[in-house]
Amino acid sequence: MDMETRIKTLGALRLNNLYGSDFLLTWDKSDEEISGILQATEILKALRDNNRRTRIFSSGLAVSIFRDKSTRTRFSFAAAANLLGLAVQELDETKSQVSHGETVRETATMISFLTEVIGIRDDMYIGEGHTYMKMVSDAVREGFREGILPQLPAIVNLQCDIDHPTQTMADLMHLVRHFGGVDKLRGKKITMSWAYSPSYGKPLSVPQGVIGLMTRFGMHVVLAHPEGYGLMPRVMEIAVEQSEKSGGSFEVTDSMEEAFSGAHIVYPKSWAPYHVMEKRTTLLSNGDIRGLEVLEKECLEYNKKYIDWECTQSLMKRADDALYLHCLPADISGVSCERGEVEASVFERFRKATYTQAGYKPYIIAAVIFLSKVKDPAAVLSEFSKGTGRRVF
Amino acid sequence: MDMETRIKTLGALRLNNLYGSDFLLTWDKSDEEISGILQATEILKALRDNNRRTRIFSSGLAVSIFRDKSTRTRFSFAAAANLLGLAVQELDETKSQVSHGETVRETATMISFLTEVIGIRDDMYIGEGHTYMKMVSDAVREGFREGILPQLPAIVNLQCDIDHPTQTMADLMHLVRHFGGVDKLRGKKITMSWAYSPSYGKPLSVPQGVIGLMTRFGMHVVLAHPEGYGLMPRVMEIAVEQSEKSGGSFEVTDSMEEAFSGAHIVYPKSWAPYHVMEKRTTLLSNGDIRGLEVLEKECLEYNKKYIDWECTQSLMKRADDALYLHCLPADISGVSCERGEVEASVFERFRKATYTQAGYKPYIIAAVIFLSKVKDPAAVLSEFSKGTGRRVF
Amino acid sequence: MDMETRIKTLGALRLNNLYGSDFLLTWDKSDEEISGILQATEILKALRDNNRRTRIFSSGLAVSIFRDKSTRTRFSFAAAANLLGLAVQELDETKSQVSHGETVRETATMISFLTEVIGIRDDMYIGEGHTYMKMVSDAVREGFREGILPQLPAIVNLQCDIDHPTQTMADLMHLVRHFGGVDKLRGKKITMSWAYSPSYGKPLSVPQGVIGLMTRFGMHVVLAHPEGYGLMPRVMEIAVEQSEKSGGSFEVTDSMEEAFSGAHIVYPKSWAPYHVMEKRTTLLSNGDIRGLEVLEKECLEYNKKYIDWECTQSLMKRADDALYLHCLPADISGVSCERGEVEASVFERFRKATYTQAGYKPYIIAAVIFLSKVKDPAAVLSEFSKGTGRRVF
Prior knowledge:
- Helix content of chain A is 46%, strand content 11%.
- Chain A is an alpha/beta fold.
- Chain A has 2 domains: 3-162 and 361-386, Aspartate/ornithine carbamoyltransferase (Rossmann fold, 3-Layer(aba) Sandwich), CATH 3.40.50; 167-358, Aspartate/ornithine carbamoyltransferase (Rossmann fold, 3-Layer(aba) Sandwich), CATH 3.40.50.
- In chain A, the strands form 2 sheets. Chain A has a 5-stranded parallel β-sheet with strand order 7-6-5-8-9. A 4-stranded parallel β-sheet of chain A has the order 2-1-3-4, with helices on both faces.
- The longest helix of chain A is centred in the N-terminal third of the chain and has 19 residues, at 31-49.
């Protein structure tokens, strides 16, 4: 599709609800909106590739709040903000008055006076990240309504306890590019599988985000995990509903072999048991250090029982020349740990593919910000594509 | 007042001394200069609200040095710098050679080669912050004079041991807006009152800055505090002199009730006792840990005696429908601490007002930088207002 | 030389190999390339002094990785990136997944999707810094070749275990300016001398970089150090080869007096003994804390034997009205330490000169980035010089 056609296609979509909105969960967005984000991602990427200037802002802040470690999302957010003309300002809660007991509402307002977007990662505790993002959103909406803020910052979920939308939309973009179109995904079997990792406490947001997004396109989505590693019930329900509506299917199995059989796409990845994450949140908020230690020991013990849940060459052979996905960094057996999520030979074969997958994230984030901040996106993108503004002189 | 009138008014003021100058203490600036900063603040805000581009720089650094925690000032400085086209670069002294015993003069020069402004917060120790800022200023002035620096960075006080000018000018802007003009402040009673907080060691720069600025406009300024919480003698003298010159008054009382009676504006806030802060500086420089512990215990004990100095509903009733001010974050009883500076119901009633007050700070800082860097501010602002440059595409 | 002549001169040089290249070691670059960097440095500085806009990028990231403390290089890199229109994004390895055992190849790719340049300081361990930079370079080149990265980030060495090219080229710029041209350096005696400092473990990259660069211009280069403080053999060889080729000379002596006699330029500076640095690397990688303590004690003991290696007034008298160089911060006797590299009176006499020397670094870095990113540098600089774009409005 050439640029003009893409922009025209984008212009025909109903995207009004994205304007002025946050992006917290993919399933809160309509199919047209998800489609619009993919389209805007392609266009922004193509404009940059064609050395077009894409700054919509001559000033304005993009605030980031990382409550957990981050490399690729941090740099993706920075790159996306910069691509649109915003300056990144990070809220480091250890260097701020936040540590003085300030309320979320107040901090959110104080960092937002000239802020266009707030990107947040808060994925450590079940029941917290999404709630925190909504609190920030409520605060800035109230501030905007009351005239305290001259513009409404968009809240962008850079990973919470429930979803990791900029990751899963980058994953989706990768699939669309790989298979040649969203319509080509129909009928494909995609397997989101638990895999063993020595660090047992990884967030649930990636598997949840994957089943919460991929069930929308008529795919056969399979979730595989050992007993005890189930996901949040609400997300499971959404996956069921969406798969029915889209004419696909959604299955859960406790056999990695079965899940891989005939799969076109596999996404083997470690995550923590949901109920343990819940317990952990309680213990933490009670400051029960002893309880946490006991829990951790139990978990590691339990986790080790499933050391065989590894994405091996022989397992890949059960799949139908499947595309391997990972949000990175992967725990690669013999490389980053003794036994991990994936055999080195499998990862190495898909290394380039996983890097390509990761490479969509900056543009996905840029597209999400863009569609939240621009009322007539097609008109602006058209101006960019025809204008004389160059990215590099 | 419309934009054109404002710009004309600004153009008629004698602001030449601001060009190329630092901003360390409000009382070093003339009435016309303070007036010019308020005017420039309004204009920059209006330009932004009208989607006008206000970048005066296409390149240049805005360096920040925070020797104490900061959220709103950090973000205000970042927003202001960005509004004018500067990129923020923070000097983190733990990551720099400063910790290798480098002199202030040398560090100041080394961070200034392409730097337009240096914002500094250094408010922890009596006798240090302002001195440090002057050392930095002297160093960069010498560097500029000697041709080592191609431009002279302006030093902006983002809170020192003596004054917090960008805060108090934001406070003043808020009052001007609230009452409908600087001239409307004449005759108003404004009370800067000490209030109880469980953290007893807050800087004196806000109350000092408030009496050092608000005594210039013909207001009846009342400073209320318990015995032992007096402010720096030099600032007290300035308050007396200015209140006489302006036709207002300046009183000190040890009764919060009396201070609130008939007040039009109240600013109840905790601060540390001056003499204790002095002792603390000495003990710290002697590394007397034991002495510091003893001092802290005594202070907390003494502080607790005044737990009744709280801004309550009943106290507010003594005031004349007064406007409540706070530089935030406030210690709110039952919210951020058990007993604090202000009752939750009072704070909640003025929450929006205090957020509005805080919202002027980015524009105040931008105005301070702008007037220090631009020789003919009215001409440039006029170009911005008539030009085609948009902030948001 | 006026701007037009300079740009013409630059245009006549063969600089094609700089385009798309990294800058890791000065001796990997041709004489014309070094000359081109000096010329571009002068032009970029003159353009800025003439208030010309020099942004070649309207978007793009400049990533910095500091594995050791830095003030002047950090700010120089930030200023250079900003001068060209790039936004700085620092990779803080403690806040990233790097600490989760991610490979260098993967991290390098993940931070590079929209990145134009990566500046790296990694100077702590012999055998590591340069190797790390090459790994990053290999990774991004592979990513670019495979189409994962839409542009190739240039790697700029901001100090490794072998060389500190942006420092030594700033030093060279300073000499060229001081003596009135590169050709005026021919026949001058320049002494790179070890000097005592109580902190014995400073990197070898400055002395190595100095002998690796200054031997190219027909100077008489003298390296002076006590026994045991020799430099890396490979760099010594390069110095010999280059001095022969350039018609200069390269000598090593263990007498500071002899080295200073008749010198036109002196660069007295502390560095660690090479063999100790090697041992230290081994002990560190074995986690041998006890061994490290023993080594440190021995080193300090040994180091103290040479406390007389100090740049004194009387020593300076042996030199021929020599120019004193230092990369800063210097260990000044009686100022930053009891006994150090240089007498206070000597340093004070050259303080302004050393600050001037440091002031070239931002432009050197900008020139290095510029020549790596722009195919026809003379054409672009010419456009900048004739265009209407202003740096300050």
